[in-house]
Amino acid sequence: MTYQPFHIYGAERKSRWLITVDHASNHVPVEIDGGDLGLAPEDMQRHIAYDVGALGTSLRLGELLDAPVIASNFSRLVIDPNRGEDDPTLVMHLYDGTIIPANRNIDEAEIERRKQAYYRPYHNALADLAAARDDVIIIAMHSFSPKLNGRAPRPWEIGILHAPQEDRFGIPFIKRLEQEGDLTVGDNEPYAGHLPGDSVDKHAFAHGRLNALIELRHDEIDTETKQSAWAERLAPILTDVLDTTGL
């Protein structure tokens, strides 16, 4: 079976929503040292390799919203699709205190090969999906670690990232989540805004498209049951925000 650097689920679905999962997989293509970055198996199960729970949550959310879902099929440690092509963190040498052996001495030729083989096909497919209708709303799904090494625990169950260039949907979404009453909602937490050239910048901001980047703390979505529960909670909230704002 030919390796595919991305998967599209529900391509036939016709709603305005488009769900993206940049860090869906911890897969390492066989062309890279036989599929081995030189990390221990337990490290490849950590947040440094992919966004734990993000894919399962997105697949259920896509069903509920009648939305296509596009997901990467390579680890963020291979090359990070949520970074611009010229970002110095596009291929990480060190992540949360862990050295990535296969990336330690990487040269420009190998970075370019990874761009062509994995990064660009994913983004080209995403661009085609986003262009399929002129009123698309991009929901970028991510998860974050409850605690980074040497850092304080993160209190937010969910965070929404937005930026001034296009936050018409993001800000009402945060306010609606806060009305739930039982959530600690991060406003540009656990990270602030977006980076130039990142996935949302490339596919949403550059085109004036409505969007929200959802960060779920991954202990909230580390089982299939939790993933379904969050998807089933988010779907009506997202729909309510869209209806209420009239966007």
**CATH architecture assignment:** 3-Layer(aba) Sandwich
Percent of residues in helices comes to: 25-40%
Our Rg estimate from Cα atoms comes to: 17 Å
The largest sheet, given as strand count, sense and whether it forms a barrel, is: 7 strands, mixed
End-to-end separation in angstroms reads 43 Å
Description:
With 247 residues, the chain is of the alpha/beta class. The chain has one domain: 3-Layer(aba) Sandwich (Aminopeptidase). It is 30% helix and 16% strand. The chain has helices at residues 41-44, 54-65, 108-130, 170-178, 199-203, 224-245, and strands spanning 6-9, 17-21, 69-72, 94-95, 98-99, 137-144, 158-161, 185-187, 210-217. It is globular and about 50 Å long. The N and C termini lie far apart (43 Å). The relative contact order is 0.18.
Short description:
The chain has six helices and nine strands. It has helices spanning 41-44, 54-65, 108-130, 170-178, 199-203, 224-245, and strands spanning 6-9, 17-21, 69-72, 94-95, 98-99, 137-144, 158-161, 185-187, 210-217.
Task: Record the SSE blueprint.
Layout lengths: L5 E4 L7 E5 L19 H4 L9 H12 L3 E4 L21 E2 L2 E2 L8 H23 L6 E8 L13 E4 L8 H9 L6 E3 L11 H5 L6 E8 L6 H22 L2
Helix pairs in contact: 2-6, 4-6
Which features does this protein show?
seven-stranded mixed sheet, Aminopeptidase, 16% strand, globular, two-stranded antiparallel ribbon, 247 residues
